[in-house]
Amino acid sequence: MRLLYIICLLILTCTTPLAGVSEKLNVVINSDSFNKELTQAQIRNIFLGTPLLKGVKPVQLEQGHPVRKAFNAKVIGMTESRISAYWAQMRFSGTRQPPFEAKSIDEVLKLLQQDQKIIAYIPENTPLPEGTIILVSL
Amino acid sequence: MYSSLNIQAKSEQVLCRRSPYKKFIAPRVFKLVVAFLILGFIPLNTLANDTPDDKTKARNNNLDWLKTSGFGRIVGGYIDVTSGNEDLRFVDYENKDFSFSNQSLIGMQVDASYSKKLKLSAQAVAHSNEKRESGIEWLYLSYKPNDKLTTKIGKLRLPFFNYSDVINVGYAYQWITPPRQVYLDYLFSNYNGVNVQYSQALEDAIIQIEGSYGQFDDDIMVQGQSTNVKVDDLRGVVLKFIDGAYTTRLSYHEGFVFDVVTPLDTLAENLVIAGFNRQADVFNTKGKVSTSQFGIAYNSLTYFYDIEIISIDSDIITISDSNSGQITVGYNVNDLSIYANYAVSLAHTDILANQIPLGLDPRLDQLSFVYDQTSEKVQNSQDELQSYSLGLRWDFRPNFALKFEISRHIGEKNKRAFFSASPATGDQNSVVLYQTALEWVF
Question: Rounded to an integer, what distance in angstroms lies between the CA atom of residue B231 and that of residue B291?
Answer without folding.
Answer: 14
